[in-house]
Amino acid sequence: MVKVTLVHSEWCHFCPTAKELWRELKEKYDFEYEEVELDTPEGKELAKKFKIRSIPTTIIDDKVVFVGVPDREKASHVVVV
Questions:
Q1: Facing residues of 33 across strands?
Q2: DSSP reduced 3-state for 37
Q3: Sheet containing 3-8: which strands, arranged edge to edge?
Q4: Is 6 exposed, middle or buried, given 0-12, 13-18 or 19+ CB atoms closer than 10 A?
Q5: Which keywords, in A-to-Z order, does the entry hold (predicted)?
Q6: Those residues with Cβ within 8 angstroms of residue 68's Cβ, 6 or more apart along the chain or in another chain
Q7: Domain extents in the chain
Q8: Which of 21, 18, 13 is nearest to 67 (CA)?
Q9: Which residues have a Cβ under 8 Å from the Cβ of 14 and sit 6 or more positions away?
Q10: Are 8 and 36 in contact (CB under 8 A)?
Q11: How far is CA 38 from CA 49, 64, 79, in A?
């Protein structure tokens, strides 16, 4: 099963749009989904591991796939595969 992790922050103006997109896709498709706040220990660990410099960042199956708000169609294709 595909695992999607969205690294976000409360102060980010684009993050709510990315959250909404992934939550809607989660309702439609079967994949694992997790949101991680950047300013938490887990978020800081992910930022270091994946060299995250911008948010929102979407990690899929242990690989950074999208930086910023993903295109809905491209995001859909990634979780359907």
A1: 4
A2: strand
A3: 32-37, 3-8, 57-60, 64-67
A4: buried
A5: Electron transport, Transport
A6: 14, 18, 54, 56
A7: 3-80
A8: 18
A9: 55, 56, 68, 69
A10: yes
A11: 12, 15, 23
Residue 12, classified by CB atoms within 10 Å of its CB into exposed (0-12), middle (13-18) or buried (19+), is: middle
In words, the CATH class of domain 3-80 is alpha beta
**Inter-residue contact 72 to 31 (CB < 8 Å):** no
For the stretch 61-79, pLDDT in tens is 999 999 999 999 999 999 9
Q: Output DSSP code: residue 70.
A: P
Give which of 13, 81, 45, 73 is closest to 5, Cα–Cα.
Answer: 45
State residue 81's pLDDT score.
Answer: 63
Position 40: which residue type? Answer: T
